[in-house]
User: Fold DUF4262 domain-containing protein from Mycobacterium adipatum.
Amino acid sequence: MCWQCDHPGATRQDYLDELRGLVMKNGWAVQYVEADPPFAYTVGLSGAGLPELLITGLPPARSMLLLNEMAHYMVHEVEPAPGDTMTFPDGSGAEFVEVTHPDVHMGWAVAFRSGPIRGLQIAWRDERGHSPWCPDFNSGGRRQPVLGTRGPVDT
Assistant:
């Protein structure tokens, strides 16, 4: 269940206060959105001068794992740029894409920041290493929405 479902009498401000507590404790929070397709994003990284992160098309546990690992990496190591690639500890890979309209997809991050934010999407590769812009991605199955324009690619 979602927090709002578990707290039917709560207000928008109540949820922002809940997010604020998580960000104070952990440095960021992760918001999962049960849509078709689902997506998740961070809330609170903007306060550290970093872009918020977003991932689409994955189940909750995988989304939260990747977003938390990447947020930790950004806070303690380096901020990736659009077009940068990364291999995660489990061997999966991704390319980073600047989110064109973070205000459309990352509502709680915008509300938390009270203003414009930057967004960086983790565009994950499928099990065979194909990126979402490859015609063979996910064996022609469900596509991964990419919410920005692919940047310059590392070589």
Summary: The chain has a mean pLDDT of 89.
